[in-house]
Amino acid sequence: AQTVTQSQPEMSVQEAETVTLSCTYDTSESNYYLFWYKQPPSRQMILVIRQEAYKQQNATENRFSVNFQKAAKSFSLKISDSQLGDTAMYFCAFMFYSGNTPLVFGKGTRLSVIA
Amino acid sequence: GAGVSQTPSNKVTEKGKYVELRCDPISGHTALYWYRQSLGQGPEFLIYFQGTGAADDSGLPNDRFFAVRPEGSVSTLKIQRTERGDSAVYLCASSINSVLVSAGELFFGEGSRLTVL
Predict the structure, then answer these.
(1) What is the per-residue pLDDT across A4-38, written as a single tens digit (0 to 9) for each?
(2) Is the peptide bond before B70 cis (omega within 30 degrees of 0)?
(3) To the nearest whole angstrom, how far is the Cα of B16 from the nearest Cα of chain A?
(4) Cβ-Cβ contacts under 8 Å for A56 (sequence gap 6 or more)
(5) How far A107 CA lies from chain B's nearest CA (Å)?
(6) How many separate domains does chain A show?
């Protein structure tokens, strides 16, 4: 079974600074997706960024980027120029590439952006 | 609708009662997922529908939990003889059928918070 581990239950960062959230996962498969989802107090999960495992280039979405290390099974999220609206729970998630299989989530990291 | 809609937003019930939670996915999304999120935890998979049929129900914790999607759109999660341990936020998500098209992205509702007293 696939597992996703987020070792940082809580983190904080000053507004406009950069923060990195860690994630490791375990799978024997070679083709899969990795995701970071954001969950604000409204409870609605929102996709932040996605990485296909076969792509060597790290995904980037505006202020959000990932450091994907396939051999190490590591997938960290870097948030640059942190904004107050980035305050939320962040979940790392895994999905097999083939077929509609469930997302497997980590336990999350609570990020607080401080003014 | 424009997004995934879940009702009720909040439900308080007594131990032993029956509860139904409803999910209305994005129009045209054939895949529908139910997750349960306990306080301070990540979402845990319950069941996945492809059209009207349950393609994977391996996450249902026991036979008190059941879900249906009779017309391939709206889904109802049913919990019988509720227990205090069932208290959680129940999240619903939908996606386009093919992973190759959706690239794995799920669209989530805001969840139904269930409290069992």
Answers:
(1) 999 999 999 999 999 999 999 999 888 899 999 99
(2) no
(3) 27
(4) none
(5) 4
(6) 1
